[in-house]
Amino acid sequence: TDATDVEFGDYQAKLVSNSLMYLGIDKLPEKKKKKHTVYGYKANRAWTPTKHKTKYPTEEKERALIQIPVIQLIMKGIGIRQFEIQALEADDLISILTYKIMELDEDCEVYIFSADRDFYQLLQYPQVKIIKSTKQGKLEYAQLEEIQAKFGIEFEDWTKFRAWTGDSTDNIQHLMKVGPVTARKMLAAGLDPSIQDVDELSSHAKEKFARYFLPHGIEKMWQSVHNNYKLCELVTDPASSLLSSEVKDRLSKALRDVKSPSDFKRNKAVNTTEAYRKLTFVLAQYELASILARRDELWNIP
């Protein structure tokens, strides 16, 4: 199937489905039907008790679905620019925006706050800083040297290494019995996941690691390995062949007015007394006490 003829999300789903061949699974598990709940009076209040529902969702996804619109509302209220492209993964969108900023100003620093290890690919650029977590109120940054030392690989092999070891958070499977140690041996032997044609691989390497490709064999399994590599590799080009024409068009419209790094910064036009009052009201309405206490810091984001 030509990737340009389908939505990127569908194409990615196909890659994930193919990658499940690692475990001998031919199809994705069936999705459970969602239960329809009728919400009553003031059910938007998280603390409102009901007979059949807990006070606040315990599942992370359900909690995020409640929190994300609120965060978007707050960001819009203080003039923080937001980008959202239908059928485009958030990590790929962030990667595309990062390249766009560096293209406009090669000395401009870009900060990405995410625990997604796919972003480690961008650490090859000194302008990119990745905040992976916070600890006791301090920001923790991903360090290129620490990553290389921890995983025992050269940085240029990071995406290839990830293709072998997989990532459960991204639903990227790995070969059974293949962990970091075996993955490093495979890379050293020349089993490079970025190579699409299995015939280009070393015959000696294919024979040496043949047992890891049972029961299908490397000839049939290699496409899944290569698909894993493409799933792990970030899209950085708005004109990538992986993107559908619809997504490319949406990206073009979103980036049309971005002519300098300053266009990514906060819109100071909303810096009014009325907007500050509304921000305070929203934070109080959703009982975001910790943010409410520091709303001046939030308001003064450059």
Give the structure's gist in a few sentences:
With 302 residues, the chain is mostly helical.
Primary descriptors:
12 helices; mainly alpha; three-stranded mixed β-sheet; 302 residues; disordered N terminus
Write the layout of secondary structure elements.
Blueprint: H1 8-19, H2 60-77, H3 90-104, E1 110-113, E2 128-135, E3 138-141, H4 144-151, H5 158-165, H6 180-189, H7 203-208, H8 218-232, H9 245-255, H10 273-285, H11 289-292, H12 295-299
Parallel strand pairs: 1-2
Antiparallel strand pairs: 2-3
Order of helices and strands: HHHEEEHHHHHHHHH
Q: Give average pLDDT, whole number.
A: 81
Structural class call reads: mainly alpha
Main β-sheet, spatial strand arrangement: 1-2-3
- How many helices does DSSP assign? 12
Q: Based on DSSP secondary structure assignment, what is the total number of beta strands?
A: 3
- Portion of residues in beta strands equals 5-15%
What profile does the largest beta sheet have?
A: 3 strands, mixed
Name the overall outline: elongated
What is the CA-atom radius of gyration, in angstroms?
A: 23 Å
Compute the separation of the termini in Å.
Answer: 45 Å
Low-confidence stretches: 1-6, 21-25, 36-50
Summarize the amount of helix as a percent range: 40-55%
